[in-house]
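Subject: design request, 218 residues
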């Protein structure tokens, strides 16, 4: 089985031709192929239109943000900062922010390259609001994800947005001090911090518990 990224030439719109690419699958189809599975997941997740059945029509329509100049493997495993930010931007419309009118979206990547999504979810009782970053991380943890390696965040009205203090503490719980947090700087700009830069001297309960146990044993 061979998979290529090709322009969606059957589209009548010139704009579509430049913006939309397809994954073209040739040769005997292997439905269990990891790249193909990943591509199908992405297409479903990003809400892109599938052009015919991927197995019969042998093509998948790929969202424009995945087009870029990257290789197919990277395209179907969007873990580059630019792709993560683009993915987060695509989620902004799902933010539930009727009180602040400040939509935020975030994605976090696990050790297997799986991407988990989050948006801010507000409440009439304002203090119950949860930020996009925490929703993404909690969704990853609830799905059994381990080894969270990087996070990307974007806000519609503030570029770059910086994670709030509560989110920094949650980020420090699940990502290493060296892991990267990317924020949308607008246009092609991306600002990147390490988790350690965002929250130096983090409170680390795991360390505290070990310390407590060690001192109890003394
Ligand atoms: N918010 C986030 O979701 N993430 C941030 O990094 C900053 C703030 C949300 C919380 C609230 O719904 C809205 O933005 C305004 O504070």
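Subject: RE: design request

Done. Sequence follows.
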């Amino acid at each position: 089985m061979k998979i290529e990224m090709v322009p969606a030439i059957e589209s009548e719109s010139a704009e579509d031709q430049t913006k939309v690419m397809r994954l073209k699958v040739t040769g005997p189809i292997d439905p269990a192929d990891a790249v193909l599975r990943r591509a199908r997941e992405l297409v479903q997740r990003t809400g892109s239109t599938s052009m015919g059945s991927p197995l019969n029509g042998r093509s998948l329509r790929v969202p424009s943000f995945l087009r870029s100049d990257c290789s197919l493997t990277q395209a179907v495993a969007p873990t580059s900062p630019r792709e993560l930010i683009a993915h987060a931007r695509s989620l902004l419309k799902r933010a539930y922010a009727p009180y602040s009118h400040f939509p935020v979206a975030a994605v976090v990547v696990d050790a297997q390259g799986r991407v988990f999504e989050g948006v801010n979810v507000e409440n009439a009782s304002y203090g119950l609001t949860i930020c996009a970053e925490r929703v993404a991380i909690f969704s990853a943890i609830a799905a059994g994800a381990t080894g969270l390696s990087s996070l990307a965040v974007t806000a519609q009205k503030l570029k770059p947005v910086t994670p709030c203090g509560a989110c920094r503490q949650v980020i420090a719980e699940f990502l290493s001090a060296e892991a990267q947090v990317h924020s949308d700087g607008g246009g092609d700009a991306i600002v990147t911090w390490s988790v350690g830069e965002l929250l130096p001297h983090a409170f680390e309960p795991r360390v505290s518990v070990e310390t407590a146990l060690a001192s109890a044993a003394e």
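The beta strands are 2-7, 21-26, 59-62, 104-109, 115-119, 150-155, 180-184, 190-194.
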